[in-house]
Write a structure and sequence with these properties.
InterPro entries: ATP-dep_Glu-Cys_Ligase-2 (IPR051680), DUF403 (IPR007296)
Number of domains: 1
Structural class: mainly alpha
Distance between the termini: 15 Å
Shape: globular
Pfam family, one: Alpha-E
Strand content: under 5%
Largest sheet: none
Number of strands: 0
C-alpha cells in the first residue's frame, strides 16, 4: 500500500470521528443549557476552548455567544474542526481511496456530507439543531460499524482504527479538561453555582461521551469528579475511555511493519494514563497540567505515525 493511501485512510477515520465528537459536544451543551436554571450563565467560550481553536475564532468573531459559537463549530470555513469541514475532508479522503474501502462506505460518507451541507441552516437554528446533530452522530456511528463489519481487517483497516481511536482519545481529554467547570462563566459571582451544579456538569460530560449508562452500571455510586475522571481516563472496557482508545491504537500499530518506535511510544502513552493518580491530580489541581502533557504525548505519537508510514512517498 502506498504511504499516501495509508495517510488518507488514517485521516478519513480521524475526520469522521471529529465530526461525531463535535456533534456530541454541541448536543451535550444544549442539554446542559436546558437543565441549568436561568440564573447560571454558561460559557460559550468553553466550547471553543475544547477544540483548541480560540485564535481562529477570535479573528472572525467579536464575542462568544450562542449564534457565533454554533456557527463556528458547525460550518465555519476557517475552522478545521467544524463539522462540515471534517465531513468534506472525510469525503475527499474516501473518494481517493475507493478501491480499498467497500463501495457502501463511499455512498454513506457522500450521503452524510450532502445531508449536513444541505441542512446546515436547520442545525444553526435552535428548533432543528437536535435532530440535525442526532442524524450526524447516528450516521458517523453507522460508518464506524460498516467499516468494522464489511472491510477486511488488514493493514488498511489498521490505519483507519489507529486514526479513529487517536482522535477519540484526544477529544475525550479535551472534554475532561475544559468541558466540566470550564462551561460555566468565570464570573466570581458564579462560584456558588459552580459548586452547586458540579454534579450536573459531570453528568453532562458523561452524556457527551454516551458514557452515562455504562458509568452507572460499573461505578454504581453518586456522580463525582473523582469517579468520572477515573472512569473516563482508566476504564479498560468502555470504548470511549482514554486508556481503551489508546489500547486500540496500540493494537493497530502492532500489526503494521516497521512499528518499533511508534509502538513503543503508544505503549508509553497508554501506561502514563493507566498509572495516573487521579485523586492526587484533583486534590493538587494538577489535572489540567497532566492533560496538557498527555495531549502533547498524543501529538508526538501522531507525528511518529506520520514520519514512519506517511512520509515515504514525499521523501522519494
Amino acid at each position: 500500500m502506498l504511504s499516501r493511501v495509508a495517510e488518507r485512510l488514517y485521516w478519513m477515520a480521524r475526520y469522521i470521528e471529529r465530526a461525531e465528537n463535535a456533534a456530541r459536544m454541541v448536543t451535550a451543551f444544549n442539554h446542559l443549557a436546558l437543565d441549568m436554571p436561568r440564573s447560571v450563565r454558561l460559557s460559550w467560550r468553553g466550547m471553543v476552548s475544547i477544540t483548541g481553536n480560540e485564535s481562529i475564532y477570535e479573528k472572525n468573531y467579536r464575542k462568544y455567544d450562542e449564534r457565533n459559537v454554533v456557527k463556528f463549530l458547525l460550518a465555519d470555513n476557517d475552522n478545521p474542526g467544524a463539522i462540515l469541514n471534517a465531513l468534506r475532508a472525510a469525503r475527499e479522503n474516501v473518494r481517493t481511496t475507493r478501491d480499498l474501502v467497500p463501495s457502501e462506505i463511499w455512498e454513506a460518507v457522500n450521503e452524510l456530507y450532502h445531508y449536513a451541507n444541505a441542512n446546515v441552516d436547520t442545525g444553526l437554528g435552535k428548533r432543528g439543531r437536535y435532530q440535525y446533530l442526532a442524524r450526524i452522530i447516528s450516521h458517523c456511528q453507522q460508518l464506524t460499524g460498516m467499516l468494522a463489519g464489511t472491510m477486511s481487517h488488514d493493514a488498511a483497516y489498521d490505519f483507519i482504527r489507529a486514526g479513529r481511536n487517536l482522535e477519540r482519545a484526544d477529544m475525550t481529554t479535551r472534554l475532561l479538561d475544559v468541558g466540566a467547570l470550564g462551561l460555566l462563566s468565570n464570573d466570581p459571582q458564579d462560584e456558588a453555582a459552580t459548586a452547586q451544579f458540579e454534579g450536573l456538569l459531570w453528568v453532562n460530560i458523561l452524556k457527551s461521551l454516551s458514557a452515562f449508562q455504562m458509568y452507572r452500571q460499573h461505578v454504581r455510586r453518586r456522580v463525582s469528579a473523582q469517579d468520572v475522571v477515573k472512569y473516563i481516563f482508566q476504564d479498560r472496557e468502555f470504548p470511549r475511555a482514554v486508556v481503551h482508545a489508546l489500547g486500540e491504537v496500540e493494537l493497530s500499530l502492532t500489526n503494521l511493519p516497521r512499528n518499533e518506535t511508534p509502538l513503543r511510544l503508544a505503549i508509553q502513552v497508554r501506561r502514563h494514563v493507566m498509572e495516573a493518580n487521579v485523586d492526587k491530580l484533583l486534590e493538587t489541581d494538577e489535572l489540567h497540567h497532566f492533560i496538557d502533557q498527555l495531549q502533547q504525548e498524543m501529538n508526538a505519537l501522531h507525528n511518529m505515525i506520520a514520519d514512519t508510514w506517511f512520509s515515504l512517498d514525499r521523501a522519494a
